[in-house]
Write a structure and sequence with these properties.
It is built from eight helices and 19 strands. With 346 residues, it is α+β, with helices and mostly antiparallel strands. Strands 4-7-3-1-19-18 form a six-stranded mixed β-sheet, with helices on one face. A six-stranded mixed β-sheet has the order 8-9-10-11-17-14, with no helix packed on it. A three-stranded mixed β-sheet has the order 2-6-5, with no helix packed on it. Strand 9 and strand 10 form a beta hairpin. The longest helix has 40 residues. The mean pLDDT is 91.
Amino acid sequence: MNQYNTGFKVATINLFNYIAPPNAFYEIDNIYTQRQWQKKEKWIHQQLTDLSPDIVGFQEVFSPNELEAITKEHGMEHFVTVSSPGVDGQHVYDKPVVALASKFPIVSVDAVEVSETVIKKLKLQGGFNFSRPPIRAVVKIDDFTSVLIYVLHLKSKRSQLESQGLRNENENVMIADSLLAEIQGSWMSTIQRGTEAALIYHDIIEQMLVCERPVIVMGDLNDTIDSAALQPLIGSHKLDRLDGKMINNLPLTHQRIMDQFILHDAFDLQDKVKPAERKPTHYFMNQGSVLDYILLSKDFKSVYDQSLASIERYSVNDKHLINPHHVHDAGCSDHAPVMIEIEIRT
């Protein structure tokens, strides 16, 4: 037996434009000074010290080599990405990647591929790509089992269309064009995000049909869990019918098969008293929302008769958002890290 024989911790952290100088993010002027970069590095070290996770999924990573060095200092010897940061200019990066760090061996790692079968079913045009390629990895956890882990960063709500009306001298045309660009561009982003969710869930089921094992999905989903865009990923537990038949009337064996494909929000699986209010993980215009999630298969659901583990604690490290200290927190992250403590059943 070893230090992991009773449980382990899983976290997801959006690093908010993590890029080492002299490189820039999105615009040539977006370059951290050495002082700013040191603050950002220090903040990440502090988060990993406070949370002490065993497995972490990261988003908004432009400098994976520097991040890998940090995670190794905190005992996470295994680190993977599945794509390279996109470069718009010589030192200007415009496409961050997701990363996975672990104290446990990462047995395999792949990028989730776009299923053309799903694209055709959804009647979408070919050539669809993920905004940020998701990670699919198998991690062997001591004294537990192998776990299928996904790290995601779904498409943001930002409009994908640019208005041309601002160049028009006619104010009516200018405002109308800008309005349409915002609304239609936002809908394009929703379609992209929902399609990404559908593709990932399709991949999860395909993997489960090959080898059933516990599943952990984590990351910045850029929407709330009840949104229409995320239902292709999380909505299976809300179904009341299957092939026209009421699920409650299906044979118990069929219901149990369905259970293996359902994902649950870790917040809802807390084995102890669940807080009355859920902490936001992101704020915009003083409005808080939960955008960062850890989703789990039935194996972590304590009331399931064959569960392998339970969620002992769910936490949101939001101090830098609700009570920021400029000296330490400026530019650190606009998201709050989310962590769960998993207790292995014996």
